[in-house]
Amino acid sequence: MRPTAPPSGSSSRPGRGVLQYARTQYARTRVPASGPPAASAVDLHAHTTASDGALTPPRLVALAVARGLRVLGVTDHDTVAGVEEALGAAGSGLRVIPGVELSAHVEAGEVHVLGYFVDPRSPVLLDALARLRAARGDRARQMVAQLARAGAPVTHEQVLAIAGEGAIGRPHVARALVQAGHAASIDDAFERYLVRGRPGYVERYRLSPAAAVQLVRGAGGAPVLAHPHTVADLPALLPELVAAGLAGLECYYGDYDEPTTRDLLAEAARYDLVPTGGTDFHGLGTSHGRDLGATPVPNECVAQLEARRG
Ligand code: AMP
Ligand code: ZN
Ligand code: FE
Ligand code: FE
Q1: How do residues 251-279 score in pLDDT, each as one tens digit?
Q2: Measuring CA to CA, which residue among 37, 87, 45 is closest to residue 63?
Q3: Strands annotated E in 216-267
Q4: 225, 113 in Cβ contact below 8 A?
Q5: Residues with CB under 6 A from ligand 1
Q6: Angle (CA) 95 72 167, round 5°
Q7: Dihedral angle over CA of 161, 164, 166, 170, nearest 10
């Protein structure tokens, strides 16, 4: 059932909190209006201000309701800080799945492991996340120092102010670079300074992909490999993660085309993994991630995933 009227706070005029946030933190960010109904009833991959998303958890929930979504996965990078607020904001029409997106280290770069149905109060999870976030803080400081040496100074205070409560990441540094006039856009800032091999890039402590899978299991959740098409050596990694307890594969992602999704569905079937999906919505106005609900995801994956939790 689709809600007949938008809930309070989800009108096309954003609430004061969001407006203020947009002005101070993401002045050039387009905060999405409610818009037409989403293509999908399920979106299992979305970010909030708890990491590098533009919308607070209640605003993300309000947008999901306004779009007619029935299930929303809240999956911030290396934190569950937005989960309880999102759960609290959701009414009976929308089911919020507590989630997390862990960044893990591989030789060729990075792999992301999503965790669904995790207990947001799990001490083992919170402990590991605190370490990951501390590493993010240290890295931000080093990035600022390297950028100064590269002739693109931004202040640490500015980056902290942009990140706010959020797990600090490269998108926040990118925003600072744009504000300081060193880059024309977020994408430009990444290209020139923040991708691997550029002067502002700094490695940070990350889990191994298998450890990330086990951590999600330890917190009672179902681990899913995110955007698998970006994984450098998927044929080698998949069996290793399956052995570690992987439950699902993100087969429907962003703007993956049909052949890509078909290939991934075949891999999921081969390893008996639940095919999941989502948009990776950030609301940041960057090229990364699609609009909330824009990627069609089959409803049945939610129950299948839930059956594999823990
Ligand atoms: P971090 O976890 O701090 O290393 O930052 C990674 C995040 O930066 C990703 O999840 C994306 O949201 C964003 N990102 C990565 N690459 C780009 C890019 N080329 N342009 C814009 N945003 C990007
Ligand atoms: Zn992100
Ligand atoms: Fe990701
Ligand atoms: Fe993501």
Answers
A1: 999 989 999 999 999 999 999 999 999 99
A2: 37
A3: 222-225, 248-253
A4: yes
A5: 52, 77, 103, 169-171, 186-187, 190, 282, 286, 288
A6: 120
A7: -20
